[in-house]
Amino acid sequence: MKFKHGILTIGVTGGIGSGKTTVCKIFEELGAKVIYADELAKNLMTNDENLKRKIIKIFGNEAYIGGKLNRKFIADVIFTDEKKKKELESVVHPAVIKEILSEFKKLAKNKSVNFVIVEAALIFESGFDNELDYVIVVDADEETKIKRVMERDRCSREEVLKRMRSQMDVRKKRELADILLQNDGDIEELRNKVKFLYSLFDKISKSTEVN
């Protein structure tokens, strides 16, 4: 099997409250290399001067306070302004993808890991699925997801539903998934499912047909 970047690459995505970050933390505990796209984006938005200039052009000088990203201001704007949200994504996504592809190249060259996991909320929306060998969609029963987010973020049911409605329809994500990971049970059940996937990817990554 030939991998797209010389190393097996797997995306992990899912809607709010699905537990995709928990899945990635378990992969990490098992020894997998995990790239968190959200952390990478925050880092680039703070430290990449070229990207900072583009963000200031979209949001004005209020986007940064003392050189630091004004997260609350930007979050408030994009929550109510779809145009600004799309403009932000149009400059941030390419920068993040470029950084991840560079990391793939390094990992393939160093051969330090057998496969790499990328956690990202917008894998399909950004077209990044085309750069990955497999995409796992983590999902759960809607009521379970609502309850998780309400407890985690101390917010109302209506706020959670609003955030859910602003995301890609989960049914569409499920259709696009290579692997669907249902996360309705407890942490041990989830850990066992991730262990199975880890073992599966480990075997695929060691395929003798890799070029």
TrEMBL record:
Domain of life: Bacteria
Pathways per UniProt: Cofactor biosynthesis; coenzyme A biosynthesis; CoA from (R)-pantothenate: step 5/5
Cellular-component GO terms for this entry: cytoplasm
Record GO terms (molecular function): ATP binding; dephospho-CoA kinase activity
Protein's GO biological process: coenzyme A biosynthetic process
Coiled-coil segments: none
This protein's UniProt keywords: ATP-binding, Coenzyme A biosynthesis, Cytoplasm, Kinase, Nucleotide-binding, Transferase
Function noted in UniProt: Catalyzes the phosphorylation of the 3'-hydroxyl group of dephosphocoenzyme A to form coenzyme A.
Family designation: Belongs to the CoaE family.
Protein name: Dephospho-CoA kinase
Species of origin: Candidatus Chryseopegocella kryptomonas
Lineage start: Bacteria, Pseudomonadati, Candidatus Kryptoniota, Candidatus Chryseopegocella
